[in-house]
Write a structure and sequence with these properties.
The complex is a heterodimer of chains A (400) and B (288).
Chain A (H helix, E strand, L loop, with lengths): L1 H19 L1 H18 L1 E7 L6 H16 L4 E2 L2 E9 L7 H11 L4 E3 L4 H14 L2 E4 L16 E3 L4 H6 L1 H7 L4 E8 L1 H16 L3 E9 L6 H10 L3 E5 L2 H13 L8 E4 L18 E4 L8 H14 L5 H19 L7 H10 L10 E2 L5 E11 L2 E12 L9
Parallel strand pairs in A: 1-3, 1-4, 4-5, 5-6, 7-8, 7-9, 9-10, 10-11
Antiparallel strand pairs in A: 2-3, 11-13, 12-13, 13-14
Helix pairs in contact in A: 1-2, 3-12, 4-5, 7-8, 12-13
Chain B lengths: L2 H31 L7 H19 L2 H22 L9 H23 L15 E3 L5 E3 H23 L1 H11 L1 H6 L4 H27 L5 H16 L4 H21 L4 H15 L9
Antiparallel strand pairs in B: 1-2
The chains are: A alpha/beta (400), B mainly alpha (288).
């Protein structure tokens, strides 16, 4: 990105050189560049721009840049220089990729990423370097739990948060027993834990945890098991293509309408066009919903649609809030990012006016936020109100 | 766990096995008979699914979409064989691995450019959209049973083609001694082009008729690739019968593995492969 910028500038200057004379340009160029370099704030974006999560990376980047555009393209008066790294959602390359930003580019702040495995790879490097880090998605509990650090911030969710409120929801509907079904990997297991804790606190019983290997999408055997267990409700977490297939299989197996289906919001996000009526009526909890109908959300959706010719989603909101959080931190120290303690203190105290509703940070730097109950109506995850006001992740193992 | 439960799981396992055979049948031809290590097999599967989705949304009918898409994939297969694979028959397998790995990347990028990165769904044809009730709360989608029927037909057709027809004889002969077959005056080049195109079309066809079940997503090809190689290796290189037996075995092992020992379900298939290979290194029905 920065390479392209300087090429453009050089091309432009070359053009003007023909008029102004080569000697003048020769002296103007280096000093101009040096001045810009000093004053600019370096932001490293480490996000997936290729592969399965490419769209999420783009949505987060768009949201983040929108937050900065709204502040005149600057943060606390400082111009921004972006350095972009495509993390390919590859945990094996995570340390190398984040090192590029920290060691080679010497960025002031790192923004990233989507995949939880990559998040944990980043955590190792960034804990040592102490670089300011805002995570706009990956929900790995450990980042704001056992592995938490003063320079780590998250503007999205912890996996635990996305299913914890479902316990209350199921209780209110009179369901006493439930089965949880997900992929056997960290995010799935953390969401299962979040639900189990919430449901058992309400006196419910999680009768069975069903797992299928990640990213396997053959669900028939487990659906047969669900039918023979006959729980009051089924709670599921899958995402993307797996979620689409699960919703369709659940309907085709005749379970839909007999055993109500609930889930983490990701089950029904971004797949409603693909599944026809298979998701109709499925209820999920998440920190964002369609048609929230607040002033802030409407303004955000309009501005986003205008700027990028796309409809925003929950990922765009998380990126946008990462920009807002960083702005709050930098404004408090008047752009002097070297005052890291000052930035951190201001970010910790920030009240973010988000499209999802206002939120603050917990001691472990994870959002304390409202969880919405959403119901699939047509092609929308319609908000049915707040399922849990100000839900905080327990942040087990974090000593901040 | 009652008898009905076990019987239904048995049905699930067999049905999943059939699905695996369908998906790996193209690889059985290309890898098993021509001996080409084709890592791009999954990409052809993906191309088939995306073609089915885009043509079905244009024409409004999956059957029409498949009828249009199959000739397209045959042409794609012939073109790839003539332009790329033909150059590599005499070279080491490593070149094929490199070429086909490159093709995976190319097809993923092309898919992203042409069709984007969204998840799509294809509706089950109305004629087959019913479900048969099995227990008081579980029913079985007719479309899955229909796919099993298609698999059996396909397996039978492949078996007859390779074992019982003149063309099949030439294919088998070409696989064991290419030069000899050529010197007997048989156009082996054309036969190879044909077989490769069939392999591509089969993989794509699997993607097409599987699209209503599996949903159409980026990277869907890489998910099926490994299991396809496992099927061909367990079954024995070059054996259609073996591929069928291996598919059913894997289908049953995965189904009952997921239900009975969920903690290790992810590795059951590979343990099975290891056991088969220790016991019979040439695979179940492979030639020594």
């Amino acid at each position: 990105m920065s390479v392209n910028d300087s090429f453009d500038r050089r091309g432009f200057l070359k053009g003007s050189a023909a008029i102004a004379g080569a000697a003048a340009v020769g002296t103007a160029l280096p000093s101009g560049m040096a001045f810009a370099q000093q004053g600019k704030l370096k932001i490293g974006l480490m996000l997936p721009y290729t592969g399965t999560f490419a769209q999420l990376g783009v949505a987060i980047t768009n949201g983040f840049k929108l937050a900065i555009d709204e502040r005149g393209g600057k943060l606390a008066g400082r111009e921004i220089e972006f350095v972009t790294v495509d993390d390919e959602s590859n945990p094996a390359k995570a340390p190398e990729n984040v090192n590029k930003l920290v060691q080679r580019d010497k960025v002031d702040v790192v923004i990233g990423t989507v995949h939880s495995g990559v998040v944990m790879g980043m955590a190792k490097v960034l804990k040592e370097s102490g670089t300011l880090w805002i995570n706009p998605n990956g929900g790995a509990g450990a980042m704001t739990g056992a592995a938490c650090a003063p320079n780590f911030f998250r503007t999205s969710f912890s996996n635990w948060q996305t299913t914890h409120a479902l316990g209350k929801v199921l209780k209110a509907k009179g369901h006493k027993t439930a089965v949880f079904i997900t992929w056997k990997y960290a995010a799935g297991e953390e969401m299962m834990e979040g639900f189990k804790e919430g449901f058992e606190k309400e006196g419910g019983k999680l009768v069975k945890e069903l797992y299928t290997p990640f990213p396997q999408v053959e669900f028939q055997a487990l659906l047969t098991e669900i039918a023979s267990i006959k729980p009051d409700a089924v709670v599921a977490f899958f995402a993307g293509g797996g979620a689409a297939k699960f919703l369709k299989d659940y309907q085709a197996a005749g379970l839909k309408g007999k055993i109500p289906l609930y889930g983490s919001g990701f089950l029904t996000d971004g797949v409603l066009d693909a599944v026809g009526d298979a998701a109709e009526g499925v209820e999920t909890t998440l920190h964002y919903a369609d048609s929230l109908d607040t002033k802030k959300d409407k303004a955000f959706r309009l501005a986003y649609a205008k700027t990028f010719k796309l409809q925003p989603d929950v990922y765009a909101v998380q990126g946008y809030d990462a920009g807002q959080l960083l702005a709050a931190g930098l404004e408090a120290v008047k752009g002097n990012v070297a005052d890291k303690a000052g930035v951190i203190k201001a970010m910790e105290a920030a009240k973010i006016d988000s499209p999802r509703g206002p939120w603050t940070l917990s001691k472990a730097h994870n959002p304390v936020q409202d969880m919405y109950l959403r119901k699939v109506v047509g092609k929308e995850n319609k908000s049915m109100g707040v399922a849990w006001k100000g839900l905080a992740d327990p942040a087990r193992g974090c000593k901040l | 766990m009652d008898l009905a439960f076990i019987l239904i799981q048995l049905l699930n396992g067999l049905q999943y096995g059939m699905l695996l055979f369908l998906v790996s049948s193209g690889l059985t031809l290309v890898f098993g008979i021509m001996g080409i290590i084709n890592l791009a097999h999954g990409s052809f599967y993906m191309v088939g699914a995306y073609l089915a989705w885009s043509l079905a949304s244009m024409t409004g009918n999956l059957a029409t979409a498949i009828a249009i898409a199959i000739p397209l994939t045959v042409v794609l297969g012939m073109a790839l064989e003539k332009l790329l694979f033909r150059q590599l028959y005499t070279r080491d397998h490593l070149y094929q691995v490199l070429l086909t790995y490159g093709l995976i990347l190319v097809f993923e990028e092309l898919r992203s450019i042409i069709w984007g990165d969204d998840v799509h769904g294809v509706a089950v044809p109305a004629l087959l959209s019913a479900s048969i009730p099995l227990t008081d709360n579980l029913s079985y989608p007719v479309y899955r049973l229909a796919i099993s029927g298609v698999c059996l037909l396909l397996a039978f057709a492949l078996y007859v083609l390779i074992q019982k027809t003149r063309l099949g004889m030439m294919i088998r002969a070409g696989a064991s001694n290419r030069d000899m077959v050529q010197s007997l005056g048989i156009d082996i080049k054309f036969i190879y082009t044909l077989v490769f195109a069939m392999g591509v079309a089969l993989a794509a066809f699997a993607g097409m008729i599987n699209a209503p079940l599996s949903s159409v997503t980026p990277n869907m090809g890489s998910h099926v690739l490994i299991i396809c190689f496992v099927v061909v290796v367990i079954g024995g290189i070059g054996s259609v019968k073996g591929a069928m037996a291996a598919s059913l075995m894997i289908g049953l092992a995965e189904t009952f593995g997921t239900v009975l020992v969920p903690e290790v379900a992810g590795m059951i298939v590979y343990v099975l492969m290891a056991i088969v290979l220790v016991w019979r290194p040439e695979g179940l029905f492979g030639r020594k």
